[in-house]
Amino acid sequence: MKTQTYQAKFACIGVIALLLLGTPVAMQQQAEGARTRLENICTLDGQREVKLTGLGLVVGLNKTGDGGKNLPAMKALATALKLMNSPVLGLDELRGADNVAIVMIEATVPATGIRRGQKIDCYVSSFLGAKSLRGGRLLATPLEETDISTDRVAGIASGAIRIEGDKVFTTGKIPNGVVIENNFINGFLNAKKGGIITLMVDSHKASFHTASEVAYSVNSEFGFESGKEIAKATGPNSVEVHIPKAYKNDAVKFAARLLDIGIDMPHTQARVVVNATTGVVIVTGEVRIDPVVISHDKLTIEVGGSGGATSGGRFVSVPQLPQESGQSGSQLQELVRALKQLRVPNKEVVHIIRELHRSGKLHAVYDEH
């Protein structure tokens, strides 16, 4: 007996990408019924990133450091010299040390974990008066977890700093600059519950419906060989899965097969994401607009109206959805397309969408950053 699979329930809707005056405004309408693997929308509970931080010294700068004028930097340099058996009598001896900078160091242990001796990247940032970190090297610096209950040294950071941008020179990256000193093993199996793996649905996909579909897909895949349902949705973003007896001694193999299961996404939540700085607008799902008239500068926009003429200025009419669609209102995609044709600046488009949201006429989750 073959494993049951879903049949696509809805026709695919292509991704719509629009550019406004040379700036990308992506109108993404994800395909309803689009098939994806669970690993693309779920993670395993227990698999989490760990942040490491530390305070260190960068040396070798070309008179762009902060050591000669900032007391904290001079104290840190004096401490470093003392640890290297080269103590100074007073901080006055370090007033000319403008090739040194005190920096904050950050690194991230991946969610999959890491073993002692392996290396990860780190980022350094000046927070005093340094003008540039270009050409500098970070002295060996211990890094710790941000969890205050843990005071162990998690890694040692050091190396040459690479400036990635051409405008900001006070932050940089050290590729493979952290040597891990302790094992980070992120378990995904809850042995206390008798061997359960919890699938965590991505926050942008989480819903009761999606969690139910995930559980159904898992049960369809393993139901025959297990003889029972092994997955149960416990919330909009979590699904508990019992490991079948055949995989009790190989949880990793089961997790790999679990995340490889295909699922037909029944729908995409209507969402509008706006970046006011860059003018990028991303639309997912069926985003509807109620009938409304918008007056913006010399532009008049009629959404879902009769399309009557106006006196003076520019006029945009956005038609309603076809009656056979079973929905009222108009599509946001049509409005943006019409504004593009009139060469409306990106920032004005963002303002218009923002006001539609504030007025309650925009039917979607609105996220502006």
Automatic annotation (TrEMBL):
Q: Which UniProt keywords apply?
A: Cell projection, Cilium, Flagellum, Signal
Q: Which terms does the UniProt entry file under GO BP?
A: bacterial-type flagellum-dependent cell motility
Question: Disulfide bond among the record's keywords?
Answer: no
Is Phosphoprotein there in the keyword field? no
**Principal localization?**
other
According to its UniProt entry, the function of this protein is described as: Assembles around the rod to form the L-ring and probably protects the motor/basal body from shearing forces during rotation.
Q: What is this protein called?
A: Flagellar P-ring protein FlgI
